[in-house]
Amino acid sequence: MVVYSFYIFDRHAECIYKKKWAPRPTSTGSKTQQSNGLQDGASQPKALSAEDDAKLIFGTIFSLRNMVRKLGGEDD
Questions:
Q1: Degrees, nearest 5: CA angle 54-58-59
Q2: pLDDT for 50-61, tens place per residue?
Q3: Which of 14, 28, 22 is nearest to 58 (CA)?
Q4: Using CA atoms, how far apart are residues 10 and 50, in angstroms rounded to an integer?
Q5: Is the pLDDT of residue 73 over 70?
């Protein structure tokens, strides 16, 4: 398993630590395919700011935590 980003949040949903690592570039054949699945020359989406990225990660984790609590029952 490869980790490209690591975030730590406090109980008030504030990102208190973040670390990002750049993925290694891969090349296949005559056209290189980037890690996000786009080929060279294809338009890429606009990059998110660090604050927006942290908010999206927290929202995902918060949603997963709530889903696990509902599926897990009373003893979890």
A1: 115
A2: 788 888 888 888
A3: 14
A4: 17
A5: yes
